[in-house]
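Fold this complex.
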Amino acid sequence: MAEGWAWFTDQFEQTFITDNRWKYFLDGILTTLEVTILALLLGIVIGVLVAVVRSAHDSQRGNKKGIGHFVLGVLNWICKIYLTVIRGTPATVQLLIMWFIVFNWARDDIMILVAALSFGINSGAYVAEIVRSGIMSIDLGQSEAGRSLGLNYTQTMGYIVIPQAIKNILPALGNELITLLKETSICTVIGLQDLTKGAMIVQSRTYAPYMPYIAIAVIYLAMVLVLSGLLNLLERRLRASDKR
Amino acid sequence: MISVKNLEKSFGGHMVLKGIDEHIKKGEKVAVVGPSGSGKSTFLRCLNLLEQPTGGTITFEGIDITDPKNDINRLRARMGMVFQQFNLFPHLSVKENIKLAPVKLKLLTKQEADKRALELLERVGLPDKANAYPKQLSGGQQQRIAIARALAMNPDVMLFDEPTSALDPEMVGEVLDIMKELADDGMTMVVVTHEMGFARSVATRVLFMDQGVIAEQNEPEAFFTNPQHPRLKEFLSKVL
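Structure:
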């Protein structure tokens, strides 16, 4: 027992205290959160835009002529290619291509932005399909009511359909957010010092894998728990208008 | 006010409207009756382009609304529509439902819209429901709110698509009463309905639609007491 405790304190000291190694973990957490939040925002913007284009295209009836229809057709086609390519290739590969090919001129200090961009583009594809399912879950009568009042398509989407859709898709979006947070750990492949990379660096100094890796597992778990708690809270807020 | 010329609408290969000519004058209350599948709802929905006609023209106050060059949103803002399923916005309170379009389209300021919403709620007899949500209301109350919402835009004409068909029988009266008041105030109305009593007492003209055409039309007394078309005779014998 005493032996085990001695081992634990020794490992703890090596992993966190010596040479201020705790900084690797703290900086790593901040980097991971920064990449996640930026990617999340980008993913939602891309996702909503793609979803709106796709549903606008699919809900078109009759009137299949005119420049508007043509533009929408082209946009829809671009969106489909985007979804196919992004969902059909691994996020790791996308990240490697983004950093070593697309941004091969970039200096290391914008690596975090490149990683966020890559994850955002990746996440957007999944968010798009989630948002589209949300839009489709809203009764057609809702947008007809909006349009019959004289609101245009964008206003009807923005004030009537999307707010209701968001409520329906919140659990799925939360899921995507949690996946995104954990998935950022693959940015170690381009050398970004996130939480996982921090633990790898510490392990390379101490040659002791247990403490750093178990520690980051616990840290990731804690972050996910906090996130799910926040999402639950938000969901209950939004559901308030249903339970009367 | 509304002129319909040779209106056609088909869904895929199925022709629902087979050439309709109709002229609705300001102040008229036109009831549209007929068996299900006769095209009466499609006809109404073409009037504000919720359905895109596949042939013919519709002119509203001198403007061809089927011409893509004309801004359909501005035209729709002057045509109120009331749906069978109410279609209130469930995430907004009653007052916000009424205010949304006039405020977002910048026809009224928020304060003006507030005042207007309360006036309209008074008018439909639900002044105490301003802050309620649609799900807390009965079907009849929801439909009265939907009428108030359409009236908030100060429309020149009101289109009703079977406004009482989704209601419990005991709630039909309260909605018809509001519509009757609206008619008495001089509103131009086009009402697709199965309420023959309403058509007879409120309408100035009744259209009978059958198989995608207007088979017969007349002023209500003659329409109900002296039908000519055999299909109308058969229809009335079943519903009266």
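Chain A has one domain: 2-243.
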